[in-house]
Amino acid sequence: MSKTMAKLPYHYGVKVRVFPSTEQKRLIKHNSDACRFIYNEMNGMNRELFMLKQVKLPIAIVQTRIETLEQRLKRPSTGISNIHGWLNDPDLDSLMKANAIQNYRAAWNLFRKVHQSGVPVFHKRKTEQKYQTSCMYASKLNVANMVNGSVRLIDKRHLQLPKLGTMRFKGIPDKIFARRHDTRIGTTTISMDATGRYYVSMQLASEQTFVEIDHIKQSPVGIDLNTDNFLTDSNGNVVSNPRYYRSIKGKLAKAQRKLSRRALRAKKEQRPLRNAKNYQKQRVLVATLQRKVANRRNNFLHLVSTTLIKNHDLVVAEELRSKNMLRNHALAMSIAHVGWRTLLGMLSYKAKLYSRQFVTINPRNTTQTCHECGFVMGNAGTKKLTLNDRDWTCPKCGVHHIRDWNAANNILDKGLEKLATI
């Protein structure tokens, strides 16, 4: 009996671009709409149930409705399908329904743990399409892998998906394809972005690691993230900020103004935007510009994060609160488009992948503190450093500091102290 995804020690994700036929595109849209409908139906029943329970009078019709809703929410797959018969269409993937229900329940669990993103809300119909299915294996299989499940690779250019059939794809890494016989597939996401490109994302698990882990000597590093340069590490290395968004800001603004004019004209002529060909053509152009910027930024962040994790056994960074920092409207655009939060997320999961340590610390006074003597600017009659002060001299010990390099050293020291107390 093969192990389940949860019992396998190493996990990985891979996203490939697929090229569906016209019929397959129709099925993807049908499943995506059904997935959104089931999620919204569960959300609607829960909201109605909450409102009905606020009624304190024992009205019979209210009590009956509460019992009905509770029964449907216990078994939503059959409860919703029995009312809405179109959900029994043979074109719909039954595992899509199970994943939609599971995602709604997961959203509630996340709300109970975090209490920041709020309660689950209704999903609006958008240009993008997405739904999830699961890779199922026969119970008698000794080894579950990428070539014998309901989601499977046929060869290096084709894969099989439930209800969709065979589909051509590209982009799978050679190291993953070479290990297809000892790697298991879990949840699979089929999606279409705003530009009309289709993708399949697969969760993979295996008994062996997906990357080569090099055992290096102790080489801790602290990194200071800033808007002037992208980051400066405690060794004095500086990574410049590529500013991808600013490079196309003017072109994007011009395209968005044109999109707005076409939307206004379509509304004046009382034509739905989904049927306005000129509007849709311009919308795809705007989405393409945004996708190119996002791809370039993500590629840059992957290169930086992988280099840091591979070359250092410990990486220490500031625990930045981007939501709070965006309140500074003078720097909001620079902060939003630099991708700090994304970088920290990449460092976190890649540290686990490469068996490294990644620690975040409170950034309080990391910039204002002298690394040599510990003097904090703003005390003893001194003024705090501003963003324009790129280098400074400590008034207590007289050591000259490069602002970001000094901050990176302070971040590393705080990280080592934090690890020592654990």
From TrEMBL:
Designated name of the protein: Transposase
Keywords: DNA recombination, DNA-binding, Metal-binding, Transposition, Zinc
Recorded family membership: In the N-terminal section; belongs to the transposase 2 family. In the C-terminal section; belongs to the transposase 35 family.
InterPro entries: Cas12f1-like_TNB (IPR010095), RNA-guided_DNA_endo/Transpos (IPR051399), Transposase (IPR001959), Transposase_put_HTH (IPR021027)
Residue ranges of domain Cas12f1-like TNB in the record: 340-411
Gene Ontology MF terms in the entry: DNA binding; metal ion binding
Domain Probable transposase IS891/IS1136/IS1341, chain residue ranges per copy: 216-328
Keyword DNA-binding: yes
One GO BP: transposition
Domain Transposase putative helix-turn-helix, first and last residues per copy: 13-42
Alphabetized Pfam families for the sequence: Cas12f1-like_TNB, HTH_OrfB_IS605, OrfB_IS605
